Amino acid sequence: MSATPAHLEQLLHQRVDACFVQAEARLGRTFARPRIHCNMRGRAAGSARLQTWELRFNPTLYQANQQAFLDEVVPHEVAHLLVYALWGEGRGKARVLPHGQQWQSMMRELFGLEPRTTHSFDLTVLAQRTVPYRCHCQQHQLSVRRHNKVVRGEARYHCRRCKQPLERELQEPVPAE
Ligand SMILES: [Zn+2]
Ligand SMILES: [Zn+2]
């Protein structure tokens, strides 16, 4: 799992808040802020848990597509929460579809975005396997190539910030090179 650098995590929180401020101004009411987790894995960029009012984001895709992620994925997921707050799950035949009319109008009218449900992110980052290492100040991701050099005793890497040698963080099965 790749740790999200603190400043990126902060930008994500700020963007979520900005979406809510925008929504509140337009809709004339306030909303509780959701809990935000940046721990999603796999190919999905984000998800909204409606009942528990939480947003989850994929740190790997975020780091590889920062601007697009903040511009599109965050409002996309916030719009899901807003639809739930305003319409619930719908009643009877008037079910609220996840990317239905209400969600689309949130995207268009509130955020001025095309209501797209797919993104054109660089997914190749998901295939790049890395191995977590640690120094005294932060987590590092070493490529499998570098990791195998460490294992074979051919190289030792140091943190540029604290100058400490990197130590293996977890005992996971070693990915093949
Ligand atoms: Zn969605
Ligand atoms: Zn360090």
Strand content: 15-25%
Order of helices and strands: HEEEHHEEHHEEHE
Mean pLDDT: 86
Tertiary shape? elongated
Helix content: 40-55%
Radius of gyration: 20 Å
Total number of beta strands: 8
List ligands, each type once. Answer: zinc ion
> What can be said about the biggest beta sheet?
3 strands, mixed
Question: How would you characterize this protein structure?
Answer:
- It is a single chain.
- Helices cover 41% and strands 15% of the residues.
- It is built from 6 helices and 8 strands; from the N terminus they run αβββααββααββαβ.
- The strands form 3 sheets. The chain has a 3-stranded mixed β-sheet with strand order 1-3-2, covered by helices on one side.
- A hairpin with a 4-residue loop joins strand 6 and strand 7.
- 23% of the residues are buried.
- Bound molecules: zinc ion (2 copies).
- The site of one zinc ion has 5 residues, from helix 3.
